[in-house]
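Worked example

This section walks through a single chain of length 311. The input is the sequence exactly as stored; nothing has been trimmed or padded.
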Amino acid sequence: MTQTPHVTVIMRSKNSDWVIDQALAGLFSQDYTNFSLLIVDSGSTDRTLDIVAQFPAKLVCIPPENYYPGTVLNDAIAQTDTDIVVFQNSDVVPLNQHALRNLVAAFDDPEVMAAFARQAPRPEADLWVKRDYAVSFPAEGDAPPWITLSLPFAAMRRSAWEKHPFYTDAWGSEDTEWGHWAKQQGMKVKYVADAVVMHSHNYTLRQTFGRRFIEGEADAFIYRDHVSLVRGMGSAAIRALKDMAGHLAHSKTLPAIIKGIATSPARRGVEAWAYFKGHSHGERRIAAGDTDASGGQKVVLARHESARRSA
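Given that input, the structure is written out below as tokens.
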């Protein structure tokens, strides 16, 4: 790229004061400086907005009940005028000053319609989280096929978004749906391993249920398939065994080993049950022609960490 194009960074926030200062400091420390920042806040009640005020950004505030990811992103992009739009979650911290440059450089290839970064887990991430991230966001090569696009740190050509705005059928997985559509259209979505950011969550079982419920509902709309609880629980058992083996091999203390082995079956079981429940909910909505996505929204937001932090 002989000249650096002006890009717009879109950041969504809610009760992120525990990390958004790091996210913004990391963004404004990038050696790629030709960007504008648009922040969409959905009802922060902590110090998030005070921190945001310390940085040059356009701020849009929406009521919490209006937060539907696809709709919010479409509305935000409609307010921009740059050819490339970058997405950075408010809990995503660039790990070096070249992350944004490396991400945007993917568009040197005119066939690239979208690109997404490698996500490294936080130092305090649970062992199973580190294992999952190592598989999903490898340090070299391509991301696995089930990661079609991941928006925590990503970019997209505006022209590609205009062809297919983010879907709004379900509350979540708007990035997965867009990446799946792009793949079906033969479009190129690039994984940029040298654009590295820090991002992970140690979800509680309650938060895990909300996250997997909404992913199940979304997948019903994206793939129009059916799922089996028996098969899902079987896969969960296999993952739990791998988790337990990982704790035996890599945990450094006996209490950590015991905790890891004891919690793995419950966590993977909750994931499978929540995904099945969400997918079944999505299937019922599709069969009934139900366009109301508020059911999934209520399930996930009631359990979301932003709600816990505001309590």
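What to look for: The beta strands are 7-13, 35-41, 58-61, 84-88, 93-94, 112-120, 153-157, 188-198.
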